[in-house]
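Below is how a single chain appears once it has passed through the pipeline. First comes the sequence as given, then the structure the pipeline wrote out for it. We keep one example in the README because the format questions we get most often are answered faster by looking than by reading.
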Amino acid sequence: MGSAIEVINLTKQYTNVLAVDRINFEVEEGEVFGFLGPNGAGKTTTIRILTGLTKPSGGEARIFGHDIHREAITAKSYMGIVPEESNVYHDLSAWDNMMFTGELYHISRAERERRAIELLEMFGLYDRRDEKVRGFSKGMKRRLTISMALISNPRLLFLDEPTAGLDVQSTLIIKSVIREQNKRGVTVFLTTHNIEEANVTCDRVAIINRGRIAAIDRPENLKRTIQSAQSVGVAFDKMQLVVVKDLEGIPSVNEVRKEGDKYRLYTEDPPMVLAGTWDYARVHNLRIISLNTMGPSLEDVFVRLTGIAVMPKEGGT
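Resulting structure:
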């Protein structure tokens, strides 16, 4: 298969800001491609260029071989776009939103009705198809937005933070549909702040920082680039008795992070830390509920490559 997206020396210069700095990457047809970056990294600008909303200052962006600006109509005909904020019409019903979107894509009435029924059922919205969207929850509006983006049977689906702030049911439905669409051959370009979502969803991930691509690879390959970020995860039966400073004193521990009801002890020598953790538990009369070694996470890669500040260490119990 060929490339769904080709980005060649893409640049965007605003008055005093170089938002995108000569970036290059390709998205293969049929893959789920994650695009990650901290706020202000150039992520949104890149997406706006790829979807034809912003003109680049230099370079090229091609969608299935068609330049997004010189051949905009053809390039856009391949796309379904789900913006970060749901773009539904609140005073229309879910059904009318679907019909209106189908008309914009010049889909015949019979075909758009068939697709609307299929998609609204898929997203659990068919029983409420005649209700005005104004009364829908955020998750329902998000599901409808994705339904609208899929009505044209796009070959390429842009998803900008599709599950941000949603309820569990909507998140699970959306993730399931993304997987199903990809199985059918749809290429997915996904931006997300949820690094774990990218880790379990994407075939490859690009990390952009300060307008430049810091890395592109499969999540597992990215993790292998920073083997020094190994860690030991531990949970104790009495959290209130655990003092982070004491955990930091275990031999070979470089850093300690509290993650929910667990602690993550970063180290270059996991066996030494495992032994020290057992000693710590015995001395403080604690029972270990879970204990395991962990390799670097995609979050560790993201932090290392972007240099973003992490939360301050816990200083108390």
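The first strand starts at residue 3 and ends at 13.

See the next section for the split statistics.
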